[in-house]
Amino acid sequence: MYETNYTEVSQFVFLGLSASRPTQHFFLAFATVFYITIALGNSLVVFAVVCDPHLHSPMYFLLGNLSFFDLCLSTLTVPKMISDLYSGHSTISFQGCVFQIFILHVLGGSEMVLLVSMAWDRYVAICKPLHYLTIMSPRMCILLVSGAWVIGLLHSVVQLAFVFNLPFCGPNEIDSFYCDLPQLIKLACIDTYRMQFMVTGNSGFISTGTFFLLIVSYIFILITVWKRSSGSLSKALSTLSAHISVVVLFFGPCIFVYMWPFPTVSVDKFLAILDFMITPILNPAIYTLRNKDMKGAMRRLITHLLSLRTVTCSISALWCLLSALVYV
Asked: Is the Cβ–Cβ distance between 49 and 61 less than 8 Å?
């Protein structure tokens, strides 16, 4: 049983990225530009996959979901950080902190499983091309994405089950720009060493286990292709290079945070920036710049949006002209 004689903490204070105001202004501009880029880039990928019939295939369906996860992960933390940097008032309620942690682990766990699904898709496409459409049916794609959401939800529930009823009586400062679960546990009014170990072990296990599963699957694909035809190895490697780049970018910071035995706050903050601002920009860039179909779909979507804007502006101008004529 936890002690009941304590003053309950109702909010937490983020110490942010820096205490220097000029440095905060730099991070404000940096985060704003990067978040706008993230929102535009990933939204374009999602809308292109949904609207363009040429992209209605399993690979692009999974890619659209990856962009959606990246957009949500970034939106969960970066706008709050921008608001805090602008106002200089960096606080979050206890309920808001718990909610942020919950959604963060749901999205993070789901994206890990989604990357495994994308590796499976590439295995079927490269090693079993004649059965690709049969195996990767629309039903299978929906099951893969639904399974990713379910596993992410279970992972998050297990994480929060350890900390939901912890007593917090001060201090209430989190040395980050978002609610980081390991740092939150350290603020509890009881000895949480074992709980920190369980939470870190849980996240570290799913991150490291999924990462090695992906690497082994890619190696298996390359070996299978090499045995069949050495000439196809370079083509398969070119196809998988984008997936491998995304996997390393996503899992690298996660594994480092949970497995590195000498954690430092500054390194954790840098890796958090990498996860929430750099990787969500690079993912759509990697897939878009290396894929002719995606580049063509993006061009068609942008052209369509610009034409709609032109029509809207023309209608607005005509309406203003008619209104002026009526008043005259």
From this structure: yes
pLDDT in tens, 223-270: 877 777 655 666 667 667 777 777 887 777 777 766 665 456 567 778
- For residue 171, with 0-12 CB atoms within 10 Å meaning exposed, 13-18 middle and 19 or more buried, which class applies? exposed
Task: Tell me the whole-structure pTM to 2 decimals.
Answer: 0.83
Q: If we measure between CA atoms, which residue out of 275, 305, 270, 314 comes closest to residue 48?
A: 305
Q: What Cα–Cα distance (Å) separates residue 189 from each residue in 10, 12, 98, 172, 195?
A: 14, 14, 17, 11, 13
How many CB atoms neighbour CB 207 within 10 A?
A: 23
* Residues in Cβ contact with 167 at an 8 Å cutoff, skipping those fewer than 6 apart: 2, 3, 6, 8, 188, 189, 190
Radius of gyration of the chain (CA): 23
183-200 per-position pLDDT tens digit: 888 888 887 777 777 777
